Amino acid sequence: GIQVEQSPPDLILQEGANSTLRCNFSDSVNNLQWFHQNPWGQLINLFYIPSGTKQNGRLSATTVATERYSLLYISSSQTTDSGVYFCAVGTGNQFYFGTGTSLTVIP
Amino acid sequence: KAGVTQTPRYLIKTRGQQVTLSCSPISGHRSVSWYQQTPGQGLQFLFEYFSETQRNKGNFPGRFSGRQFSNSRSEMNVSTLELGDSALYLCASSLRSYEQFFGPGTRLTVL
User: CA-based, 20 to 30 A from B6: which of A68, A89, B69, B92?
Assistant: First the structure.
């Protein structure tokens, strides 16, 4: 299967700081999503971004499919941004998840 | 539009028992996928159904099975439960296997 590596594994930020999370994948994909897992376990959709750049408020994402990586940017972080961020990539009907980046935002 | 729903939310079973989990996709979505999340193995793909047909299966033993009904609702079954089956089981629905939307999960504890 496709290998997905996320970095960094852990990140601690002061409220208001910016951060960049990275997702590298080992093969060509036609689906890529970023999720935020809340403390109760639910995966919240952030971006569906197999290629290009998207922005949603303080969050933005860029995927360079030809170089097999995606970046998630969080600006002006807030304590509510804390949690685990997952990148998932897929070819059609099967997604492979990375091991996640655990983000802690301290006030 | 209602999201993906999963029942039950929490379940406690003992080794050797079997369990059935249910997932109702977003209205109009015909693809349902199941994932297992554990602290040691992370999020792993179990299987995917589309229009009542299993299209893909992950690397899990035959004790894990599923099915999809004509209304797109899906169930997964785990027989002869083992301690290692304790996990968060997540269901996702999608339109033609593109963007996936996850339910809240079922947390299974095997004692």
Answer: A89
